[in-house]
Amino acid sequence: MEVIDGNRIAAALIAELKAEVAAITGRKPCIALVRVGDDPASVSYVKKKGQTAAEIGIESRILLPPAAIGQAALERLVESLNGDAGVDGILVQSPLPGGLDERAVFGRIAPEKDVDGFHPVNLGKVVQGDESGFSPCTPAGIMELLARSAVNLEGKHVVVLGRSLIVGRPAALLALQNRAGANATVTVCHSRTLDLPSLARQADVLIAAIGRPGFVTADLVKPGAVVIDVGINRVADPARKSGHRLVGDVDFPSVSPIASMITPVPGGVGPMTVAMLMRNTVKAFRLRRGG
Amino acid sequence: MEVIDGNRIAAALIAELKAEVAAITGRKPCIALVRVGDDPASVSYVKKKGQTAAEIGIESRILLPPAAIGQAALERLVESLNGDAGVDGILVQSPLPGGLDERAVFGRIAPEKDVDGFHPVNLGKVVQGDESGFSPCTPAGIMELLARSAVNLEGKHVVVLGRSLIVGRPAALLALQNRAGANATVTVCHSRTLDLPSLARQADVLIAAIGRPGFVTADLVKPGAVVIDVGINRVADPARKSGHRLVGDVDFPSVSPIASMITPVPGGVGPMTVAMLMRNTVKAFRLRRGG
Question: I need a surface site. Which of B122, B237, B258, B270 has the fewest CB within 10 A?
Fold first, then answer.
């Protein structure tokens, strides 16, 4: 059994992007990071994104409107970033505070600056397999993790647990695409699935993205399967200073002995999400410059 | 076993649309049908669409540019229809003659007039489950056929054979949506799938859209399954005046005795595609009028 080291793979990707950005003459790529309010997880994610951008040499602008900003003002802020020639990518950190319409905000981002990949045009391009768009960062990061771990999905049965717009649905579409490394047979299970265990056990590659700590136990996994754990669940842990720890959707102790490969939490898919955001930002920069 | 009568169900939908259009005061909905060149199947499809529009009371404008029109001129034609306030829906008949970039042409249609549902914005809305867009007509017609045959997909295992952009992928996304009548567990198989029969046999609802005449034989079908045949294959038949007949992807004689419900070819999914195009046109009219 091999533990897929997301930190190591993300670091390799970041080093490649750093070299690529260093070779850019003139203005460097720039990402605008919009964080509305002070949700602690959002604070930590946006900080990490800014740090990774700096490490690569990508400029970042952090905008911190208050939670009370209101829908219209937030959309105007996005529009001003759309019109700012110095901004290549725009990320509005999810989730937005209650009362704000996230889909409307994401739909307002100019598709060519939508480095998070949630504008319908970019989701549509994922359906089409049109690589001129931006794929959502977490599922794109899963595909990259698999490719860099020499897992070729062709002909494999990929079972995705969860049908979220952020992970499950786009992950299924990416695995299904007609291109090298993809070409998987794909099943999507979710909360309404009647016999999830029997489908999960058929997976050559099992992608767990349901947000339930330790849900995937060994009896749901075919021996030798590749197991990708997308869950990031906070569970109480009085033994820690923070009072909590992060666990995945996979019960690592029982599943890891029978999987052929498995991603840990933390240190698996998580670091790839940030790295793919940076790759999308460099791509946006190049597309906008006509390179 | 029940044969799902697509002609009857499409006729019911067309009658509803006719009543709806009759109640519209002033200008009626209008669809522009663009057929490039003289492909015999395209001639027949566009004719049928024009006839159905007339039956409902939808105005149609048929544009017949020559196969030699060229990419730029065809895109200009689409742009002129985008800008024409009297046109609510635009359909460019697929397939286009060789040398023309179909995806670029479809991407040029204004999303709010894209009644065929192939613009990336509308495909993205299918991913999102955003009902303000237009779903591709054939998969939307399958969903409508199932709903009007009292087949509720919730918790059912839908296996889609084929991953085309026109049928397989959007059908999978529609069945997976989080809404009443959908909520299915979905598997997509295709040419690279290693053990298609064992997956097909797990289907509660089997959707065949691979374009191989009679491919689905009884050994691929679970007894009691609902079988939807999307194939329209021309096979030689010297006994017919035309020299050919249309057959589906399903071997009807062997499958029909074990299915609980099955669509025939012709007279199953086919009539629904045209009816859904008309429904999308009326929807486009209402959305553009702000109704």
Answer: B237
Residue A105 touches partner B, C-beta closer than 8 Å:
no
Minimum-distance CB partner of B189 among A103, A170, A185 = A185
Residues A246 and A157 in one domain: yes
User: Which residue, among A55, A99, A47, has the nearest Cα to A73 in the 3D structure?
Assistant: A99
Q: What is the pLDDT of residues B200-238, one digit of tens each?
A: 999 999 999 999 999 999 999 999 999 999 999 999 999
Q: How confident is the model at residue B290 (pLDDT cuts 50, 70, 90)?
A: confident
Residue showing tokens 């939808």: B58
Domain that holds residue A82: 26-110
Catalytic site includes residue B93: yes
Q: Which of A123, A130, A156, A201 to mutate to test the interface with B (most CBs of B within 10 A)?
A: A123
Check if B155 contacts A (Cβ < 8 Å). yes
The pair of three-digit structure tokens given for residue B84, joined into one six-digit string: 């024409």
**Helices and strands, counts by H and E, chain B:** 10, 11
Residues 29-58 in A contacting B (C-alpha not used; CB under 8 Å): none
| pLDDT per position as a tens digit, A57-111 | 999 999 999 999 999 999 999 999 999 999 999 999 999 999 999 999 999 999 9
- CATH (domain of A190): 3.40.50.720
Q: Would residue B287 count as lying in a domain?
A: no
Specify whether A141 is located in the same domain as A262: yes
A142 band by pLDDT with thresholds 50, 70 and 90:
very high
Q: Are residues A143 and A215 in the same domain?
A: yes
Residue A17 in any domain: the answer is: no
Q: Taking residues A197-226, what's their average pLDDT? A: 98
Query: What is the sign of the dihedral through the CA atoms of A197, A198, A201 and A202?
Result: negative
Instruction: State whether B185 and A169 contact (CB < 8 Å).
Output: no
Do A89 and A145 belong together in one domain? no
